[in-house]
Design goal:
Number of helices: 3
Number of domains: 1
CATH topology: Aminopeptidase
Strand content: 15-25%
Bound molecules: coenzyme A
Distance between the termini: 29 Å
Order of helices and strands: EHEEEHEHEE
Mean pLDDT: 95
Number of strands: 7
CATH superfamily: Gcn5-related N-acetyltransferase (GNAT)
CATH architecture: 3-Layer(aba) Sandwich
């Protein structure tokens, strides 16, 4: 299986899988509604991506399986993701890059190494950018979570740092 990972740019923006291309879950706070998952949010997502690119650097990548877009990863310091303040095990640390989303949208593309490839790529990226650590809220009971399951992160050496509910904060030190 041929996997390729590309930074999101003007050229490939439309390859970001649904619903990630217009999802504003992490960019918002308060009650989450269907409104946060509507295609008309695309413009706002583009604006957010541009702002974070200016202030932090590129913060989203698309994973292609056999040249077909299938996965998406979104990451930046937690201050760019206000939703992190609503998690019981938060707040993520200021010295870390936070993995907000690591998702293989197409069911048929799961279990083929895309999630692993995106995570390995991200671990390298954090090192290149000089950050001290990578953090996320991983889910204990299931992979149905914006960034996937706790088991995936434990396999890569992440440690649980705060454990208040089903979504512990996990951290990988560089
Ligand atoms: C969790 C996820 C990112 C893992 O990526 P993946 O490409 O399927 O996984 P990989 O092939 O790289 O395998 C990594 C691990 O993922 C898990 N995994 C493998 N196949 C899976 C599948 N079909 N579904 C869910 N998790 C799977 C396993 O723990 C695997 O570990 P292993 O190698 O020890 O078996 C991906 O399956 C996914 O996005 N699932 C949907 C999660 C979801 O519903 N998210 C809600 C978003 S809001």
């Amino acid at each position: 299986m041929r996997i390729r990972i590309e930074e999101v740019s003007q050229t490939n923006f439309s390859d970001i899988p649904d619903p990630c291309r217009y999802c504003l879950y992490w960019q918002t706070t308060g009650a989450y509604s269907e409104e946060h998952l509507k295609p008309y949010n695309e413009r706002e997502k583009k604006i957010w991506l541009s702002r974070v690119a200016r202030e932090f650097g590129e913060c989203a990548k698309i994973a292609y399986l056999e040249d077909s877009p299938a996965g998406f990863v979104q990451f930046a310091p937690a201050k760019f993701f206000p939703r992190t303040a609503e998690y019981s095990s938060g707040l993520p640390s200021k010295d870390a890059v936070f993995v907000a989303c690591l998702y293989v949208a197409k069911k048929e593309a799961r279990g083929k190494g895309l999630g692993t490839a995106m995570l390995e790529d991200l671990i390298g990226e954090v090192g290149r950018r000089g950050f001290k650590a990578l953090e996320t809220f991983a889910r204990k009971s299931s992979a149905e979570n914006p960034s996937g399951s706790l088991s995936l992160y434990l396999k890569y050496g992440f440690k649980v740092v705060v454990d208040k509910d089903d979504f512990p904060l996990v951290r990988l030190e560089r």
